[in-house]
Design a protein that fits this description.
Largest sheet: none
Number of helices: 3
Distance between the termini: 47 Å
Oligomer: single chain
Shape: flat
Order of helices and strands: HHH
């Protein structure tokens, strides 16, 4: 991955994290527009970074995370029932 792409992705992730924390810490404020803007920036840089990575490995990881989340949600709903 290009150094510039990596640095821009890190910068945008940091900006998204900052606005998400601000929203969490000040729930009375509506930061939806800022969150959407930063999310768009992050997704654009992820798309660019993804071009130089192993797409199959990324897809496998996404599928694993989805499966893990589904199992966790099922366990939690069964536990609460």
């Amino acid at each position: 991955m290009e150094q510039r792409t990596l640095l821009k992705l890190v910068e945008e992730l940091n900006e998204l994290a900052t606005v998400l924390l601000q929203q969490h810490n000040k729930p009375h404020k509506n930061l939806q527009n800022e969150i959407e803007e930063e999310m768009g920036d992050v997704l654009m840089w992820i798309k660019k970074a993804k071009k130089s990575l192993n797409k199959k490995a990324i897809k496998r990881r996404i599928e694993w995370k989805k499966t893990k989340l589904q199992l966790k949600e099922k366990f939690n709903s069964d536990w609460e029932a």
